[in-house]
Amino acid sequence: AENMYFFSELALTLNEPEERVAPTDSRLRPDQRLMESGRWDEANVEKQRLEEKQRAVRRRREAEAVEALEEGKDYEGYIPLWFERKVDAVTGELICVYKGGYWEAKDKQDWSMCPDIF
After folding, report:
1. Of 88, 111, 93, nearest to 25 (Cα)?
2. What does the alpha-carbon distance between residue 99 and residue 61 come to, in Å, rounded to a whole number?
3. Cross-referenced InterPro entries, in alphabetical order (predicted)?
4. pLDDT in the model for residue 3
């Protein structure tokens, strides 16, 4: 445990690569892979690239929302693929609930609906 920063075996295996997962799976993040290989400088450059890509997508969505508002149209924004927001009947809090589709896509290896996030 001391050699592994006192992480449990489960914690140590959570980020291990797995085959046939969605291209949006966080285990496929290129900056993480570089960091785990000890390539710190490259990992930092890659992390900055990914963050700027995310900011650009956010700016584009914000511009689309403004444009829709100006035209009097509704704007849905980003809709998650496999989860939907609902109000918890007991707590009244907003929660994310699995709506299906991931396991079917994984079985078919059809990830065409996935955004390019990396």
Report:
1. 111
2. 23
3. OSBP_sf, Oxysterol-bd
4. 66
Shared domain for 8 and 53, answered yes or no, is yes
Same domain for 60 and 102, yes or no, is no
**pLDDT per residue as tens digits for the range 2-35:** 666 778 888 888 888 899 999 999 999 999 999 9
Write out the H or E segment, with its range, that includes residue 70.
helix 40-70
Does some domain include residue 31?
Answer: yes
Stated length of the chain: 118
Pair 54, 22 in one domain: yes
Q: Is the pTM of this model over 0.85?
A: no
pLDDT tens digits for range 39-55: 999 999 999 999 999 99
Whether 115 is in a domain gets the answer no
Question: 116 in a domain, yes or no?
Answer: no
Task: Indicate if the alpha-carbon torsion angle 16, 22, 26, 31 is positive or negative.
Answer: positive
Residue 68 sits in which domain range? 1-76
